[in-house]
Design goal:
The protein is an alpha/beta fold. It is about 40% helix and about 15% strand.
Length: about 100
């Protein structure tokens, strides 16, 4: 079985369950970024490849990054509707040269 097929047909169904509560994970990542003094610099852009449920994208946007995220799985993309409104998160579902 191809990796993408395994991810889409099996793992995507359990993705958020494997990691636990969304809000708890957001708080954990925010604390991690604060502890390691991760904050926007000159470009203020953060790229999240394979963004999953947005566990990194949301806290990065909350501390001031403009987040560009890529998530190829339509099943995992459903979690994006739960993102807090007003954050600079640009979601891309395909990587094409434009």
């Amino acid at each position: 079985m191809h990796i993408k097929e395994h991810y889409e047909n099996h793992l995507a169904n359990f993705y958020s369950w494997m990691f636990g509560d969304f809000n708890t994970k957001i708080k954990e990542k925010q604390q991690f970024f604060q502890y390691h003094k991760i904050k926007p610099a000159s470009s203020k852009i953060a790229i999240d490849l394979g963004a999953g449920c947005g566990f990194q994208s949301v806290p990065l946007a909350k501390i001031g990054f403009e987040v560009k995220e890529y998530e190829p799985s339509p099943k995992v993309q459903k979690y994006f509707s739960a993102f807090p409104r007003g954050l600079l998160i640009n979601v891309t579902f395909s990587l094409s040269a434009t």
